[in-house]
Write a structure and sequence with these properties.
The protein is mostly beta strands and 766 residues long. Helix content is 12%, strand content 39%.
Length: 766
Amino acid sequence: MLLSICLMAVLGMMANGKENRQLFDFGWQFTHNGKTINVDLPHDWDIYEGPNSGKGATGTGGGWFEGGKGEYRKTFATPEGELVKLHFEGVYQHAEVFVNGQKAGQHAYGYTPFTVDVTPYLHHDKQQNEVVVRVDNSQQTNCRWYSGSGIYRHVWLLTMPALHIAENGVFVTTPEVSADKAQVRVEVTVVNESDQNRNASVAVGSQLLMASVPAHESKTVTTTVFVNNPQLWSPESPTLYEANVELKEAGATIDQQTVKYGIRSFSFDAEQGFVLNGKKVLINGACVHHDDGLVGAMAFDAAEIRKVRLMKEAGFNLIRTSHNPTTRAFLDACDSIGMLVIDEAFDGWRTQKNPFDYSTVIDSCYREDIHAMVLRDRNHPSVISWSIGNEVIERKEIRVVYTARKMKAAILEKDTTRPVTEALCAWDSDWEIYDPHAEVLDVVGYNYMIFKHASDHQRDPKRVIWQTESYPRDAFNNWAITNDFPYVVGDIVWTGLDYLGESSIGRYYYDGERAGEHYIGGGHPEWHGAYCGDVDITGWRKPISHYREMLWNAKENLYMAVREPNGYFGNIKETAWSVWPTWESWTWKGWEGKPVEVEVYTKLPEVKLYLNDQLVGTKQVGRDTQFKAVFSVPYQPGTLRAEAGGQTVTLSTAGEPARLRLTADKRTLKADGQDLAFVTVEVIDSKGNVCPEAAIPCQVSVSGQGRLMAAASADLKDTEPYTSSQLKTWKGRAMIVVRSSQKAGKTSVSVKSSLPTANISIAQKK
């Protein structure tokens, strides 16, 4: 729901009807490794080339992709407007911007937005202008996960008068909130980039504020609006309002901005925990990296929205943007879908984790980058905390306290309405020595250290704690601690989604395969991604996801899965971030008569299990069983059925593969060249059961108005480039991503294999 405190024109439109913000994504020429092609943004050249079989420059952390250098080039006519600027939502990394052969700007950090004023470099005699963006991601390694390479987020062409509302210049807060009335504070910053002093007025609803702005300076004006009987924003009811602001000079509107915001109140304290709109809320969170799986780092709005929706459907109520600022579209989705956010700025600080990471630019860039994050994101009601770092290496040095204070101060310069956190950790027995560091923080993040909560609370009773990273297999223990101790406000698992890079973290393996954690012995070059997510990169929820949702929410009442029998494919070995391989499968050919463990997750008090309508057993379920009923069942084909509280779930043995089933997440795309459809591919038998071990090579073709963006399975050892038209199903599943064009019409997706050809059509509408 979207409500407005006043009615004016829509965002991005001037009062005279001319757009002042245009998408600048289409029609670029891209040069890399001596080849030039035409591309539309967002663009990530790494994902097109694929992992380099363990030889890629980015190494284990980057998923063995290559990085390197690239150049983007585009021509455009000089637009109307006193000022013309280019806004880049994100370029990875070390971007230099040239206009008509002259350097107009640069930006180092790959995860923060930046704006370049190109006005002085434009031709004003109706000649075409040329913008060139040079991107340098060749200094490797610089990131501990898959970064992608290139202009991977949107670019916007901005036009404005010399006197205008500042970029992100409307700041809305709700300092007083009750069920009857909310106080909405609107702060507007006006910038005068002309050579003369200017007098203007700012209209916020029915209020008119005067602003006298000296030449080349800015002026901030503030007003308060009251909303009666406000509809409060929460994950369950994500109601949004609009604040519309007009800048007027000599009675005429010369600029305007419209921002969305939510009315909500929240607090953290050791006695009550996290309280949102007067109600205590337990935080069930997920760490999420910035990539979008099959499309790499390319930040399409549709992919960002889908990522938030997957986490919402998995039962999470918070996402930590580990370990960098996310996109505006991602936070818009969190606002509208209903998801709390910890907005994180950096991974490390001054002591390097990789030779070319943020430590190389921190002193010159940290304040600019923090401001870029906070100014862009501070109106989002979903954001409940800023995070300044993660597991910094210099944590045992006294300077770390100084750095933390400087980081926090930079945030407070732009927003004082949210607490500041940071993810602390210990890789040895030292922990209590970090107390001076923890005291800088409003909420203290514990990475894998929640077992210290009781002694820490005794030492510092006012400390508010959340576990900012946890092992997936510790789901029950972390829920129990958060449930039982109010000063522990939540748990945030590593991770919500499988992701590219940090190769092989979360894997299980079999005897005879290369042993050890992902970081031991140079990593595992046969892997290019991380398997520790509750949800895999195709969007399939693993059984651990259903178990976690059952613990934290009332929605998931009954779920059944089967532990892979040890020895079926080999003797299973686990790693620190793994869980035992568990599947929605009752297909174990060749294991007849041997025991298989069946797990039923529920908070209902009693579970009955049947195999082929014969009662296997009855189990009592409660906190003492960690809300699991575990049955050992001699395998025989057929149907497994669990019953509890009048509810039923079943698993049936699959027959031989009969056909492919294609299911699109949406059947109509916007004909804007930016929309995406995610098409699930399933190998099914004649009865519609997914064949859980089917590995079938497929050839994908897309015709009509759409185009193929990616096709792959969730197998993080498959080295076929994600953007290839070839895929092989894994565990009977795969995914296809289709991008819309800018024309209305129909798109046909066809998948050929040894099975009958499968087809699905998708409409495109303006």
